[in-house]
Structure prediction request, 714 residues.
Amino acid sequence: MIYSGQTLCVTKGEDSIVELKFDSQGESVNKFNKQTLTELGEAVRAIAATDAIKGMVVTSGKESFIVGADITEFTALFSASEDELIQWLLQVNTLFSAIEDLPFPTVTAINGLALGGGLEMCLTTDFRVMATTAEIGLPEVKLGIFPGFGGTVRMPRLIGVDNAVEWVASGGQNNAEKSLKDGVVDAVVEPQQVVAAARYLLNQVIDGKIDYKAKRQEKLDPLKLPPLENMMAFQTCSAVVAQQAGKNYPSPLASVQAMQRHSGMKRDAAIEVEAKGFAKVAKTTVALSLVGLFLNDQELKRKAKKYEAQAKPIRQAAVLGAGIMGGGIAYQSAYKNTPIVMKDIAEKQLDLGMAEATKLLSKLVERKKIDAVKMGGILSKIRPTLNYGDFASVDIIVEAVVENEKVKKSVLVEVETNVRDDAIIASNTSTISINELAKALKVPERFAGMHFFNPVNKMPLVEIIRGEKTSDQTIATIVAYAKNMGKTPIVVNDCPGFFVNRVLFPYFGGFSILLKDGADFQAVDKVMEKFGWPMGPAFLMDVVGLDTGIHAAAVMAKGFPERMSYDFKDAFTVLFENKRLGQKNGLGFYKHETDKKGKAVKSADVAVSELLKSVCQPTQEFAEEEVIHRLMIPMCLEVVRCLEENIISSVGDADMALIYGLGFPPFRGGVFRYIDQMGVAKFVELCDRYASLGTLYQPTAKLREMAKNGQTFY
Prediction:
């Protein structure tokens, strides 16, 4: 044994080959945390002091190789100065370069996931052998940063500019086939052979059959492209990356610019350029927001895992109502391997539900994600029925009938008499009180809300709504089912609109007041899309449906009359009265059609301006800043109220629900990150500036206290 630590060890065999094995004790995966980096430095020094070594193979004792840096540890470094961050990066890179400079050949056996710093570690060795089942990548740009352990330096020197830009600036995970094709790895073998194959390759090098020094030298030297060709390659890549990433996400383009700046340098000088570029993007608000979202997501997963430990097993599910939503729920459950019964009272509706599931699966076949045999297998897990005869074996039932309280109560009563006593019952309602619906049930403890977002197959969030009498095991089981369906479950407490819809309608309220005051809805949409929303409020209401929006607005007005009922007729009502329902009938704020390829397109409709004249002031221009403030303040304040009232349990849960449920701009990190970055005191001042617009713009007493005390949410 040359070295033994808590996270890795080094042994020397009789063949004079050393094995550096990453195997973090007490952990399920290997990560680059401070302890691992410290021990790696000690191990490399021990290896360098050992005589008669012919070569080194790097392995992992876990199912994955190294999943990357421990971001929970390193976020504290991001708050340091740029100079301090640069110095830390250079220290780590000195260690990585020491591995690359060892006086004998080295090979890495990549048995599983090698991401971020994990892949950068692999790049320091002369050769890489990869398991067919492994995936590797540099996902740092998804956190608003880019590789800082030499990834931008070694990658272009190994695989060329075009491929390196794709690997670094896209942040994707790549399978073995692509990794071999692009030249990131040198061989691909079956998982059980990966270490043996790495040793075989190393022996080939030791025997002089492969020149490892020439291979290594490529990573130490400047790029070999002629200057003009080099410039053209980077300029072309920069244009593509800038267009794809957009101006709100600077790190992908910054990574390309760093690669271009150090392309003519030797390794050590190039690493300094990389470190300076990394430090600059790490200090941006975008990096703070995206790293914050990553940590929030990790916390959500931790909570879900805790719930899963208390959950009852779900072997058979059921959905009531076979429309587009019911069909989507059935598809998602079956696709993720939980068989589901789909019940309706009409054959026509069952056909619609099956058609929805078939359509979604057909698209996957077209994209070659699955084959026809797999599609048939998934469809066979959906059992349409007109009666309750198949419900004896059902573990969970999701009610997804029409959004009408009387109808839902009637259906829930019927369900309760036709299922086992221990079956969980959930309602896919978007607005109706879970406590109110629970009154219809004999055993409300087994009942909760399970609010899916449309389209079910694409929207990641599921709101799990706890009623006053809902049991902990019921919540745990529904969370586990949502997680098994590939969704992100967030548990909230009951109130009108729950969390997501409750905070969305003040945003629409601000929009309604702005239209009344003479704003042009198309101009507002453009401003809010520029702010970062996937669509502006007018287009969003068209997608939601004016009829659905009017219904939900009435629920909100009844629940929160002091803020969400209005003493004027709004634009939504006018359009609804004129049978303009949005995308569902082709007419809303916009005219909606499909192009030749079947893609939905929207266009302006002059009739709308005429209709809105009756309820809106003459059109006038508003500054972009005012448009943003008048829409965002009501939403932000309602989110704050939800936290204060314990509707949502944490700032992290709230921000993730907004990202996953509404498409809140990720680079802004969510409402609480948005307020923090503005400053709570400044935000309260902003609210007061718009106080004349009504109670939607009135801060809570607790928020004023936070502003006075200089507090933040994070």
In short: The CA atoms of residues 563 and 695 lie 5 Å apart. The radius of gyration is 29 Å. The mean pLDDT is 95.
